[in-house]
Amino acid sequence: MKSLSKKNSAIAASITLAITAKAKALKAEGVDVISFGAGEPDFNTPKNIRDAAIERINAGGNGYTAASGLVALKEAICEKLKKDNNLEYKEENIVVSNGAKHSLNNVLLALCNPGDEVIIPGPYWVSYYELVKLADATPVVVMTDASADFKVTVSDLEAALNERTKAIILNSPNNPTGTVYTAEELKVLADFIVAKDLYVISDEIYEKLLYEGEHVSIASFSEAIKERTIVVNGLSKAYAMTGWRIGYTASTTAIAKIMSNVQSHATSNPNTIAQYAGIEALQGSQETIETMRLAFDERRNYMVDKIDSLPNVSCVTPKGAFYVMLDVSAYYGKEIDGIRITDSLSFAEALLEVEKVAVIPGIAFGADQYVRLSYATSLALIQGGLDRIETFLSKL
Ligand SMILES: Cc1ncc(COP(=O)(O)O)c(C=O)c1O
Questions:
Q1: Which of 99, 241, 337, 364 is the most exposed place for a label (fewest CB within 10 A)?
Q2: Buried residues in 120-156 as b, exposed as e (16+ CB within 10 A)
Q3: Atom 7 in ligand 1: residue holding the nearest Cα
């Protein structure tokens, strides 16, 4: 038989899959597993958004829309970008896709040629790396450090730069670290990006889940940086709409056109009903965002305080999103119930095996010192889960 696609065979399976699949299997057997793995809000989609979708179904909203999305939704997105981010865009700058992940895929396909390099500051969201490879480009990870609040600097970028560098992926607030860049820091990065004639893919999906500081879009500093920025955002995290699959980009017309053409052949429009619901999400009451944000903030504070009381582990207080990176590397080399802990994966496996707590190994984000804990789960489960982690550490 002829061989299969070399490029796509090289796309890695999700490292997190093994742990989450095992946690699910244990749960199905009736084992009391507490999971810190969630990458989505544990809230229902707000009622006004659900109602808008039901209304549209009953009104016969069953047809295709333009491949790049409904005009009315693009207009709502432009209004949002103006109001929240002080960014002027027109309908032709917006492409609505099947979630921000799909948007990112489109962006990379629009920007990259074989041999191009894309800089990804680490710890990074796991899909960036593989999406860059899918676009025939090369991911170049620039690792940041907890002591620098996991922030990439111009000198870090300078060291990774060469004539093949096409773009930088910036994610603030960040998954998995919760890092939020200040306006001053973003301005310095923006000046560098303009000076070096690069593109910046600015993933702002966690914009609304911010506990300290304010969200600033890197595109907002000048026309020069705006035309080099592709803003990526979506409804998944802000409106508890992960399953509805609506993400979007704002970019130059030229980039939007390529993405729109690619999407028109690959998927056509994102789900029509979800697009109508998206208009309500953006234009209806924004109250539930604050309710969720306050709940996440309470859980964040509990989690960080508890971690601070645990021996030989540490974390940087997250300022946004809903994740904490827990440095567990002081325990590497220890053994429990015959399991030797040597890295983030074996730590996560042992924790699940012994205390029935699921966490995501940091190696999935390029950072093997850490495990990632999500606080998109109830305070009671967070308390129970952290107590179990305390017990686990005391046995090591
Ligand atoms: C940093 C980041 N970007 C993008 C996404 C994709 O979001 P969605 O495709 O659900 O809109 C996620 C989801 O976990 C994320 O964490």
A1: 337
A2: bbbbbbbebbbbbbbbebbbbbbebebeebbbbbbeb
A3: 100
Q: What percentage of the chain reaches a pLDDT higher than 70?
A: 100
Using pLDDT thresholds of 50, 70 and 90, give the confidence band for residue 242.
very high
pLDDT in tens, 284-333: 999 999 999 999 999 999 999 999 999 999 999 999 999 999 999 999 99
Is residue 213's pLDDT more than 90? no
Model confidence pLDDT, tens digit, residues 337-346: 999 999 999 9
> Two tokens at 75?
């207009």
pLDDT at residue 48 greater than cutoff 80: yes
Q: Which atom of ligand 1 is nearest to the CA of 247?
A: 11
User: Among residues 370, 362, 375, 367, which one has the least CA distance to residue 306?
Assistant: 375
Q: What is the average pLDDT score of the chain?
A: 96
Q: How confident is the model at residue 239 (pLDDT cuts 50, 70, 90)?
A: very high
Residue 382, classed as helix, strand or coil, is: helix
Question: Which among 128, 153, 173 is positioned nearest to 141, based on CA atoms?
Answer: 128
Please report the DSSP string for 140-159 in residue order.
EEEE--GGGTT---HHHHHH
Q: How far is the CA of 235 from the centre of ligand 1 (A)?
A: 10
Q: Which residues pair with 97 in a beta bridge?
A: 247
Between CA 174 and CA 97, with CA 113 as vertex, the angle to 5 degrees is 50
CA distances from 344 to 14, 17, 268, 335, 363 (A): 15, 14, 40, 14, 6
What number does the ligand 1 atom closest to the CA of 242 have? 10
d(CA 316, CA 147): 8
Give the dihedral of Cα atoms 357, 238, 302, 330; nearest 10 deg. 50
Substitution candidate for ligand 1 out of 130, 175, 201, 267 with most atoms within 8 A of CB: 175
- Integer Cα distance of 134 and 80 in angstroms: 31
Tokens linked to 295: 């709940």
User: Which SS3 state, helix, strand or coil, does residue 348 take?
Assistant: helix
pTM, 2 dp: 0.97
pLDDT band at 53 (very low <50, low <70, confident <90, very high): very high
pLDDT of amino acid 19: 81
Residue to mutate (ligand 1; options 125, 204, 374; most atoms within 8 A of CB): 125
> Phi/psi at 284 (nearest 5 deg)?
-80, -170
